[in-house]
Design a protein that fits this description.
CBS_dom, CBS-domain, three-stranded mixed β-sheet, elongated, four-stranded antiparallel β-sheet, 8 helices, CBS domain-containing protein, Alpha-Beta Plaits, CBS domain, alpha+beta, CBS_dom_sf, single chain
């Protein structure tokens, strides 16, 4: 699932012509915790209540000085937005077009259901495995065969190219909760497992990020 599918293009913004008081009024009146700062259609960063508590600058550009604006592209996978949101403990992540122009935001309220759907949390018990590889090495037929040798089936599969690494990433949902046998089989065939979820009590990077968001919402 790509970020553009859950991007809010009508989310409120502020401009460099606004000041600190304008932001505080916007956040309070709209009952939100963060808002993107734009210079025309150029994204400069996100002003949050946390930043307002820590920094005292009146000028909004000065307020965000030294904070590199981080955002995702429309065609990035939602997992990238998840990692960025969890790392920043932010309720929104800005989204840009292929031309680098601001188009909207992904909110935590929209991201959580999207991730839950990808992980199969809404459906019958199942497991999820994420693999990374070179695009030329991808073979759905081989993956399906290896999964089936463990009395399981691939019930959902999503793929995307990761911009930062150039790797081809595959998210598989399989028809059993205990994924340990499937993971072991894939590793025997030299597949690199990035994440996996199932009945086992373990933690990995994606689950940590997801839990961080849940904890953030409960604060």
């Amino acid at each position: 699932m790509l970020c553009k599918l859950i991007t809010k293009t009508d989310y409120p913004t502020i401009s460099v012509k606004d000041n600190r008081k304008d932001v505080e009024v916007q956040l309070d009146s709209l009952h939100i915790n963060a808002i993107p700062l734009l210079d025309g259609n150029k994204f400069l960063g996100v002003v949050s209540r946390n930043i307002l508590q820590i920094r005292k600058e009146e000028n909004l550009v000065d307020l965000l000085a030294g904070l590199a604006p981080e955002w995702v592209a429309e065609d990035d996978h939602v997992f990238r937005a998840l990692r960025l949101m969890a790392n920043q403990r932010a309720p929104i992540v800005a989204v840009h077009s292929k031309d680098g122009e601001y188009v909207g935001v992904v909110t935590v309220e929209d991201l959580i259901p999207a991730v839950a759907t990808l992980l199969g949390m809404e459906d019958a018990p199942s497991g999820s495995i994420t693999i990374e590889m070179d695009r030329n090495d991808y073979s759905f037929g081989e993956l399906a065969r290896l999964v089936e040798t463990n009395d399981a089936d691939i019930v959902q599969l999503n793929t995307y190219m990761e911009k930062e690494t150039g790797l081809f990433v595959i998210n598989m949902k399989i028809s059993r909760e205990d994924v340990s046998d499937v993971v072991a089989t894939l590793q025997r065939y030299d597949y690199h497992i990035r994440y996996y979820f199932g009945q086992e009590s373990y933690e990995n990077e994606l689950k940590s990020n997801y839990d961080a968001l849940i904890n953030y919402l409960n604060i």
